[in-house]
Amino acid sequence: MRVELAQIEVKVGRVEENLKKHLEILETTSADCVVFPELSLTGYILKDLIYETFKEVEEAVSRVAETSRCAVLGGIKEISPGILRNSAAVILNGQVNFVPKFYLPTYGLFEERRYFQRGNPLRDLRVFDFNGFKFGVLICEDAWHPEPVEALARLGAEAVFIPSASPMRRLGKSLGIEDQWTSLIKAHSLMNGVWIVFSNLVGPQDEEFFWGGSMVSSPLGEIRAKGKIMEEDRVVAEIDVEDVRRSRFFSSYRDHVREFHQLLSELD
Amino acid sequence: MHPYVRERLGLNYEMVDKYLVMRLRKYISDAGARGGVIGLSGGVDSALTARLLTKATDNFFILVMPSKSTPKKDVEDAMELIREFKGENRYAYFEIDELVDKFSSLAKTEDKRVIGNVKARVRMVALYTFAQRLGYLVVGTGDKSELMLGYFTKYGDGGVDVLPIGDLYKTQVREMAKWEGLPESIYSKPSSPALWEGQTAESELGIRYEDVDSVLYLAFDEMRSEEQILSLTGLPSPVVRRVISLVKASQHKRMPPEIFRLSGRAINSDWRYPRHWS
Q1: Phi and psi of A159, rounded to 5°?
Q2: Are A65 and A46 in contact (CB under 8 A)?
Q3: Chain A to chain B, count of Cβ pairs less than 8 Å apart?
Q4: Contacting residues of B for A209, CB less than 8 Å apart
Q5: What is the set of domains in chain B, with CATH numbers?
Q6: Do A168 and A129 meet the contact criterion of CB atoms below 8 Å apart?
Q7: How many CB atoms neighbour CB B160 within 10 A?
Q8: How far is it, in rounded angstroms, from Cα B186 to Cα B50?
Q9: Is the pTM of this model over 0.80?
Q10: ipTM of this model?
Q11: Per-residue confidence at A71, pLDDT binned at 50, 70, 90?
């Protein structure tokens, strides 16, 4: 399966303009499936603009669904009046599913719990099937915890797509946030024997700047494709279930010690 | 500077340069402006910021705004930089003394601190006059050390549209100016607002910028306790306390003016929108 990581710069609150960019990429892609970043239709630093911008998302998603066979877009889903979720719209052969974010960062520069409700993994975690290839979708902060990727892998996902909006910080001798993400992505791949497809926003939004650097890690923890830092890019990678096998034959992934999760379920 | 802090404040200047130039370019275009105006003093902050601005856009305009208290050397350095930036036909020489003297006589004061702030605010008015005439933004030159200490004039050099080097400490600014190939006379010059004759930042603050930056970094970036800062830097306790108290006392200079809440939704409190809102 060929995936494209559409590392785009979007305009905050301008869904129509952003949708146009999505459609252009979908029309010209050579991939089977295109993964856009988190909140790619709306922009990330929306603040109170969220209260009006979310209304345009569903229409934009259905416009994409008319033509695209496989795409993951970043948007906002109103699940009941006034209750918004930061979600990925997963479009598969005309069907649309919204996967919500489970961990909503509300620290430092982030204030997602001011606006969004988190998803419930018991109801909302999904594995999708594209021509026999199984993938799940998680959003950004969900990759900063071990369980979401593990849960998807044990539900059968062979790849995990991670639309993200990671702002640049800790630029020193190297780009600290890039080092951290690379470590996380490789670790998830290795621990679970899955492909990780990290598609990040790029460009400025208010004080923040999304650094791009989208990447694909194989189940063996090798970075197979990498987007440019700090500029728009389109990255295409081939992902194959054979690599999942190769990784899992020589790892202890098959041993799931459930008692750890029992123990975890009783801890804060 | 203590090796620990020096190591932590080390930067990949190539990446920082690329990043800041790109951000400045995008900021100007996203604002719908045509370019940027900057005041060039001959000091390191404005030299570095001007270098970034000239890389970001051909549409730059430089103002040199000396007063009686401006050292001759600063004006010469500013003119040399203008030649280096190929800005000979994109600058103006704007003497502020006549205007400042008028304020002084109308307000019946010659207090050097009051008049010093008038100078900074007259310069701000001059920058905005040119900016509006040209359809440009005013590009500020404050660095993180000055902004944190509150070592700037509110609505003077603090009155700008954007602060490209506002997250770089003074010692990083000097390093970066060197990396950019600016003249040594610029990056090793003692910092001074030159609001009155003989004024230098380090003598007025009573602390070297290397020490200021060490304390600021440890106290606020790493959130270290006073005891840890003392043991890491070897600085005397009054110096550490003074830096921290300057930061706290100047908080109002870094914030928009306070609005007294009445309604259900008050500006900045629970009415929060992005800067580019359309």
Answers
A1: -140, 145
A2: no
A3: 51
A4: 19, 23
A5: 3-195 (3.40.50.620)
A6: no
A7: 24
A8: 13
A9: yes
A10: 0.92
A11: very high
Dmax over Cα atoms in chain A, in whole Å?
A: 50
pLDDT per residue over A164-220, tens digit each? 999 999 999 999 999 999 999 999 999 999 999 999 999 999 999 999 999 999 999
Place of tokens 């209260």: A51
Q: Specify the pLDDT at position A95.
A: 95
Residue pair A169/A177 in contact by the 8 Å Cβ criterion = yes
Angle at CA of residue A153, ends A150 and A155, nearest 5° = 110
Asked whether the beta carbons of A86 and A63 are under 8 A apart, the reply is no
Closest-CA residue of B relative to A11 is B276
Catalytic positions of B are: 45, 146
Go through chain A and tell me how many residues it has. 268
Task: Name A200's bridge partners.
Answer: A164
- Contact between B23 and A209 using a beta-carbon 8 Å cutoff: yes
pLDDT of residue B204: 86
Query: How far is A228 from chain B, CA to nearest CA, in Å?
Result: 13
Residue type, A103: Y
What CA–CA distance (Å, rounded) separates B217 from B209? 12
pLDDT tens-digit series, residues B230-268: 999 999 999 999 999 999 999 999 999 999 999 999 999
| Burial degree of A149 (CB within 10 A; 0-12, 13-18, 19+) | buried
What is the average per-residue pLDDT within A56-67?
Answer: 96
Better pLDDT: B195 or A154: A154
Give A7-40 as a DSSP string. E----TT-HHHHHHHHHHHHHH--SSEEE--TTT
Q: Is A17 exposed, middle or buried (0-12, 13-18, 19+ CB in 10 A)?
A: exposed
How far apart, in whole angstroms, are the C-alpha atoms of residue B96 and residue A56?
Answer: 52
Q: What is the mean pLDDT of residues A34-57?
A: 97
Closest C-alpha among A130, A40, A155 to residue A87: A40
A232 is catalytic: no
| Nearest CA-CA partner of A18 in A74, A65, A79, A92 | A74
Q: Identify which of A195, A226, A190, A191 has the alpha carbon closest to the alpha carbon of residue A5.
A: A226
Domains and CATH numbers, chain A: 2-265 (3.60.110.10)
Residues in chain B: 278
Q: Tell me the Cα Rg of chain A.
A: 17
Q: Which residues of chain B have pLDDT under 70?
A: none
Q: Residue A95 carries which DSSP code?
A: E
